[in-house]
Amino acid sequence: MGSPLSSKTANAVVYSLLFNADGLVPAIAQQHDTGEILMMAWMNEDAVRETLDTNQVCYWSRSRSQLWRKGETSGQTQKLVDFRWDCDADTILLQVDQLGVACHTGRRNCFYNAVRDDEMTAIAAPEVNPGDIYS
């Protein structure tokens, strides 16, 4: 995405988004060069602003009720390449450069559950031991 946005532009982006009653908007992270969908998480205004200010993706952790800077403890960071939102302004698409795995289970992406041959199955094995990155 280049250099961080000005405060004026970041504010315009925030005010363009439609946050839900909890002050959150869903954000989908996609690997910028392959199109792989990595994960979905939530962002609040502060997470959007920090992401636009730093070009490092930041989410809102609903379980911890605090900002979640992707990779802060695991080292599995997401560098922002492009910031987009949909026509209803209620969903964000983050095109990122993912360093390492995106999923807390140690898999490349969070979408590893699938239906195959009329059965539920995991279609991807962990690439790293979660205990090695989330200790």
Write structural notes for this entry.
The protein has 135 residues and is of the alpha+beta class. It has a single domain (7-124), classed as Ubiquitin-like (UB roll) (Roll), CATH 3.10.20.810. It has 3 helices and 8 strands. The strands form 3 sheets. Strands 2-1-6-5 form a 4-stranded mixed beta sheet, covered by helices on one side. Strands 3-4 form a two-stranded antiparallel sheet. A hairpin with a 2-residue loop joins strand 7 (113-116) and strand 8 (119-122). The longest helix is centred in the first third of the chain and has 10 residues, at 7-16. The chain is globular, with a radius of gyration of 15 Å. The mean pLDDT is 94.
What's the mean pLDDT score? 94
Per CATH, the architecture is: Roll
Count of alpha and pi helical runs: 3
Distance between the termini: 31 Å
What order do the SSEs take from the amino end to the carboxyl end, as H and E?
HEEHEEEEEEH
Keyword list:
Ubiquitin-like (UB roll); 8 strands; two-stranded antiparallel ribbon; about 140 residues; alpha+beta; globular; 3 helices; 4-stranded mixed sheet
SSE arrangement:
Elements lengths: L6 H10 L8 E7 L5 E7 L1 H10 L3 E4 L4 E4 L8 E8 L6 E7 L14 E4 L2 E4 L7 H4 L2
Parallel strand pairs: 1-6
Antiparallel strand pairs: 1-2, 3-4, 5-6, 7-8
Task: Offer a quick outline of the entry.
By secondary structure, the protein is of the alpha+beta class. It contains 3 helices and 8 strands; from the N terminus they run αββαββββββα.
